[in-house]
Amino acid sequence: MRSAVFAALLLAACRQRASETTFDGAQVTEAAAVKSHGERLTYVLGCRGCHGKDLAGTFFTKDQPQYGPLYASNLTVEVPEYSDAQLDGIIRHGIHPERKTVWGMPSEIFQNLNDTDYQALTAYLRTLKPVGKKLPPPQFSVQDRKDIASGLYQPAVQRVANFKRKQPVDLGPRYALGRYVASVSCEECHGSDLGGVSVGPEKTPDLIVVGGYTRPGFEKLITQGVPTPARKLNPMMYYVAIGRFTRLTPHERDALYAYLKARADRLSR
């Protein structure tokens, strides 16, 4: 009887995994393959952009003395300190077990990360060998506190709630993978509905602009950071393209383009 129950539970879990929209390579079970998938996601999701190439943390505001000091934590020594539930709270919900919330962590987009990809990511993080030391918690400067009071700078838990209310348009199963990739990568800079974001004098465009790209032109944009001649590029996009989007598979880049092009066509009507 117990073996029959276990078999039923395993079958249900397999069906759930099969029904999820995931990054390529997620539907694996062998430990080395899961680890490899999780490692790729640390690039695609931008973990190394904030936490450093070796994920041992960075002095995030080193060149901005008006802020902090703020650090991106050393994942190699901090991840082992947390249970699976606590780690999920931090990454996908913006909830810290001691400090209530986290700051600067893009939990607003990681809430869209499905269980299979998330579990591969954390499985990889738990294999990291400790490097260096634990970095200090956030220390808010006068400017930080002004930005928090004005609403310009928000805790991750608040951004999770804000982003949940408005997500990219759902264009159906055909475009599900592209929408998923956009929701856990493009939203961070282009907003929860991909409509662009203004922060002071800086502005990221509505991704309706992809409607003006051919597939080869889009490939050049997201793998080389080179826009069409008629457009200017935010310098940040170059680094995102080189450091993150080159790690997407060709199939994932095809899917992302197809979704963003279909979205542009829908919104242009």
Q: What level of helicity do the residues show?
A: 40-55%
**What's the SSE pattern?**
HHHEEHHEEHHHHHHEEHHH
Termini separation comes to 58 Å
Biggest beta-sheet profile: 2 strands, antiparallel
Percentage of β-strand residues: 5-15%
How many helices? The count is 14
Number of strands: 6
Number of domains: 2
Structural commentary:
The protein has 269 residues and is mainly alpha-helical. It has two domains: 22-165; 167-269, Orthogonal Bundle (Cytochrome Bc1 Complex, Chain D, domain 2), CATH 1.10.760.10. 50% of the residues lie in helices and 5% in strands. It contains 14 helices and six strands. The protein has helices spanning 2-19, 31-44, 47-51, 75-78, 84-93, 107-110, 115-125, 142-150, 156-164, 176-183, 187-190, 215-224, 235-243, 250-268; strands at 58-59, 71-72, 95-96, 100-101, 197-199, 202-204. It has a two-stranded antiparallel ribbon. A two-stranded antiparallel sheet has the order 3-4. A hairpin with a 3-residue loop joins strand 3 (95-96) and strand 4. Helix 10 crosses helix 14. The longest helix is centred in the last third of the chain and has 19 residues, at 250-268. It is globular. The N and C termini lie far apart (58 Å). Residues 1-16 have low confidence and may be disordered.
Which short descriptors sum up this protein?
269 residues, mainly alpha, two-stranded antiparallel sheet, 2 domains, Cytochrome Bc1 Complex, Chain D, domain 2, disordered N terminus, two-stranded antiparallel ribbon
